[in-house]
User: What shape does this take?
Amino acid sequence: MEDLEEEPIPDIDSCDAKNPLAVVEYVEEIYNFYRQTEDLGCVCPNYMSNQFDINEKMRAILIDWLIEVHYKFELMDETLFLTVNIIDRFLARQTVVRKKLQLVGVTAMLLACKYEEVCVPVVEDLILISDRAYTRQEVLEMERLMVNTLQFSMSVPTPYVFMRRFLKAAESDKKQEFLSFFIIELCLVEYQMLKYCPSLLAAAAVYTAQCTLRGFKHWSRASELHTNYSEDQLLECSRMMVEFHQKAGHGKLTGVYRKYSTFKFGCAAKSEPALFLMDTRL
Assistant: This one.
């Protein structure tokens, strides 16, 4: 019998061969680097046990509010993900009293903007959006504390960088893209999702959105090879995402749901959740 040749990885970059911004010559090396370094941006999934005055619920309220602020300021997608990452990495190393938690949030957004945005909101804008709860000096002092606590290691691989690549591998249209981002932004609010690394969260969000729109389980060979995750590896995380989708419009924290219920985001939040993924017999 002849040896079976290994099936090649589908080329998802040929369409961008003439686009210098797509850097197709070394895009694989870039994402291999992201995969090797993504752990640097992860935190202990139970770091709140070291905080004495704040808890998971307060974190959720803060991030839900920041998602609305991010939307109001019309900031770039990557700014939101980096903001949340900076908050978690800082809180994992520094204890914070509850009255300073919002200050941590707006300062993290300021720092993320300086890395990702062309036009950065001024400090006064952030003070105003916080109902003048803090002074300019307090924001600048918190900024100094945060960058020193994080040792100026600000830019790390977040779920966003993987989302762009994995959506491309899945040959996603705008509808699937909006739904994928709706699902993963729901996860930003949920403290329990810190146990998953950024690449797995991104892959599971794309998979969950794909299944939601198709009405059945689907994970292509191209997606599996470019994400390095099989369908079985994604199911646990995906089922949690379906639960978040199901309860998104209820309760007090509905910032993500309201954002993705608008026409601007294709009313993605109003899609029926993929409840069939909850069947553990699948």
In short: DSSP finds twelve helices and no strands in the chain. The mean pLDDT is 92.
